[in-house]
Amino acid sequence: MSLNRALIMLSLLVMTGGSAIAKPWWMRGIESNETDFLSPDAAFRAGARLENGTLRVRWVIADGYYLYRAKMSVVAESPDLVVSGLSLPRGTLKTDPYLGTQEIFTQQVEGTVAYQRLDYGAHTLQIKVTYQGCAEAGLCYPPITKVLSPAGSASLPPPAAHDWEGVAIGGGALAFLLAGLLLRKGRTLPLPAA
């Protein structure tokens, strides 16, 4: 009888591939496993762009995942770049068993950041974004930090020339010429002796 039980157990183990035994205790009874979860880069894609003098940061969130509004931030990475806080829309309320009631974002979210460049475009514009999110199936990721170069910031247009600059240069050249002619009037240059 014990040989039959051993054979039955062995055949069940082979048919299930040992998956019931291989799961850690906290995953037993849950249909998902660690290979079911996306990598952080696939679950939460972050990007930034400059648009009409505004820095916009956008996150695209995979289905079944969410980001915590309170865990999202943007700081300056470039020298001589000053940024103010990240302005985000209101999120959806979710009661988290560990963090309590939190505002979250699903699908996508875009925030704006006021900024000022003190280097007049001498350095590439870079920002550091930090965010944290979870999968609805129960996996929470540690905080993610990325350095982004906003699209549209790689090459800044040269500063616009003012219309009065050409007039000032032309006027200065004309004044120099007239002053030279007025000072020369009545003077003769001695000729070299032959």
What report would you give on this structure?
The protein is of the alpha+beta class and 194 residues long. It has a domain at 38-148: Immunoglobulin-like (Sandwich). The chain contains four helices and eleven strands. The chain has helices at 2-16, 19-22, 40-43, 163-184, and strands at residues 44-51, 54-61, 65-68, 73-76, 81-87, 92-96, 100-105, 108-117, 127-131, 133-135, 144-148. A four-stranded antiparallel β-sheet has the order 1-2-8-5. Strands 6-7-3-10 form a four-stranded antiparallel β-sheet, with no helix packed on it. A hairpin with a 2-residue loop joins strand 1 (44-51) and strand 2 (54-61). The longest helix has 22 residues, at 163-184. The radius of gyration is 34 Å and the shape is rod-shaped.
Write a brief structural summary.
With 194 residues, this protein is α+β, with helices and mostly antiparallel strands. It has four helices and eleven strands, in the order H-H-H-E-E-E-E-E-E-E-E-E-E-E-H. The chain is rod-shaped.
